[in-house]
Amino acid sequence: DEIRYQLIDSDSSMVITYPQKINDVNEAISKIKNSKFFPTVVINNPSESVPEGTRTFKELLETRNNDETLLKAIKPNPDAMAVLLYSSGTTGLPKGVILTHRQIVSNCVQLSHPAIKIAYETSKSYQDVIMCILPVFHVYGLSVNVFSNLFYGTKLITLPKFEPQSFLTSLKECTIAYLVPPLVQFLGNNPSVTSKNLEKLRSILNGAAAISVSDAHKLLSKKHIIINSGYGMTEAGPVITASRNTCIDLATVGVALSNSQMKIVNTETGETMDPSKPGEICCKGPQIMSGYYKKEEATAATLKDGWLHSGDVGYFNEEGHLYIVDRLKELIKVKGFQVAPLELEEILRQHTGVSDVAVVGKPDSRYGETPVAFVVPTVGKEPTEKELLSYVASKVAEYKQINSVVFMTSIPKNTTGKILRKQ
């Protein structure tokens, strides 16, 4: 369902995927009514076969009869859309975030400031080696992990997925690792991880979710490493703040990037307030998105007079370091990914055995949070927990899947019908 929705919403004309997902892609295409033909290209290893009717990425690159004169008709435009990344929002359905070439390059340049830059410039005698385990369909993996490091000419070691042994083996070669809290926790808490695994590691950047200070200290007890944090969102291109290289405060997510502005506004009135008091975090800068694809109302609600309203609550200390307090948006963060409760609620409401439902995030030591569904069953059609878990799992990506179900007689709501999630 997610693949089908994004193919339609993005007006895509081609799909590039990998062998493990080709069946899901073909199924999604088959469900699109009046669909145009979607050429499908598969990135595969030589040992992997591809289904009939698809082309391999290697074949595409080796095609020799392309009309290269077509390239001359293309006029480079720095303000043209470079990528369309889907970010969950409070409306539930994912929205396509438009990031231009200028916005992506601007963020890379901002991250190259000497005060926050992590990687060294590549030279004849030295090249940093970067752990690249973050998925590149996520803006953190794509822009921060890949684009900003290609900017310096670093070497990237890519892993298709997290497997402890291959991760630790590859980590022995790395000088820098871009991680999310569960991976920091793994390195700090797992007794099999020793200083030998971290021998060359100089720096870690944590992003996508707040780091556990206790987990960070456990990791630091194994080897002294510079641990930096950053804050951002897909709509921000994505980085808004980053820790200075000299910062030893693990609780902060850093300072505002160069050539950008930040302010704290009252969550009720929207008025600018004392930045030392908790309020909604807003940002303006050359890296901020152009808007949501084909969603003008959602864009207007998020971008106001050029200011991106994050939906997150935070404050600054006297030195300009930002601290995250809470989220206005009711998104659940699973392994650094955003999960919209409303999207899961809409799916569950389509089940005949569900009369009403509310989804909230439950703190989880491994993943940050996991979605829990509170369900009012339909009288006479009471579903089992296993049935509902399987139902949701068949419709969403793995990280969005419901962790558990709690059956209730009613869902607490206010007078306007809004779910009281904290109850």
UniProtKB/TrEMBL annotation:
Gene Ontology MF annotations: long-chain fatty acid-CoA ligase activity
Cross-referenced InterPro entries: AMP-bd_C (IPR025110), AMP-bd_C_sf (IPR045851), AMP-binding_CS (IPR020845), AMP-dep_synth/lig_dom (IPR000873)
Residue span(s) of domain AMP-binding enzyme C-terminal: 343-418
Pfam families linked: AMP-binding, AMP-binding_C
GO biological-process terms attached to the record: fatty-acyl-CoA biosynthetic process
Main location (coarse class): other
Location(s) in or outside the cell: Peroxisome
Residue ranges constituting the AMP-dependent synthetase/ligase domain according to the UniProt record: 1-293
Alphabetically ordered keywords of this record: Peroxisome
GO CC terms, sorted: peroxisome
Family recorded in the similarity comment: Belongs to the ATP-dependent AMP-binding enzyme family.
Name the UniProt record assigns to this protein: Putative prokaryotic long-chain fatty acid coa synthetase
Originating species: Panstrongylus lignarius
